[in-house]
Write a structure and sequence with these properties.
Helix content is 48%, strand content 11%. It is of the alpha/beta class and 342 residues long.
Amino acid sequence: MMAQPNVTDPLRGEVERCSRCLGRLRAELARVVVGQERFVEQVLIGLLASGHVLVEGVPGLAKTLLLRTLASAAQLEFRRIEFTPDLTLEDLIGCSGLGPSAGQDELAAPTGPLSAHVILADQIDRGPPKTQAAFLDAIHQGEVVAGGARMPLAKPLFVVATRNPADQEGTYRVGQSALDRFLMHLRMEYPRGEDEWEIARRGIAAVGGRVEPLTDGEEILRFQQLLGRLPISDPVLRYAWTLVRATRPQSAEAPEMVDRWFAWGAGPRAVVALAACAKARAILCGRWAAKIADVEAMAPAVLRHRVAPNEIAQADALSADKLIHMLMEAIRREHHEDYGLP
């Protein structure tokens, strides 16, 4: 039986409070947004893990409604940014020609969209590369530098960025190093038939009204800090480590299928992201200890923007998701005794 990490009773109590809070948030989101249960779960995992997420999906799937509801339930400010070719950093901050006052090295808090706690960065790849880079650097560092001074951003800060398909006109490529800064890359699919029927039934009388305040920014920050203090067992962490290292073609750990079909693999940041998301998923499921199943459940979202199929894989119609699942199957066959896998 896999050894569990040592967790004290007070820490377990904090985990239980966090799990209950996330459960209430999930229920409130489900009341407003029809379906999309897996996407909602992954968004909450991203929030708890203090990461930002990249989303691909067609318009009209309730991304804005979902994030606005989440912000209202957590009593946080929500803003949506529409990225356009003429968008500048000054537009994001809310002022221009900024510079620190005499004797100051910090600016006042921003008044533009970057002032919010929950941000939907819509069609980020339609913004010019310079603005993309400044925005991604700001949300990653938690501050923006303008006019020679530093401007701290809100805490907690949670950004969901959407991206168009790579072959669309009028878009600027988001570089691999920029993609790696996102904790997860999520896919928002069309609703199931019964869910779309319910959406149609609701029509203009869709569920709305007052969103119940369920938590606040200070509590969310405490939950995020709790995740950092929560231990993870060595076997679970080693599985995440093994999986990430196996994505790198021509490495000693790479199976033959990786050498054949992967153009490149994930960097060290992926191990940290997998561990954090596995722990967050465990809490969301009412558990204080992450399992290998949590790592496997989160692997596609954490890895799909960090690995790339090569030309042979593309010719064979093998997507990044398909390759990730094939890799996990290969690791199961090779290491099932090491990790007690079925």
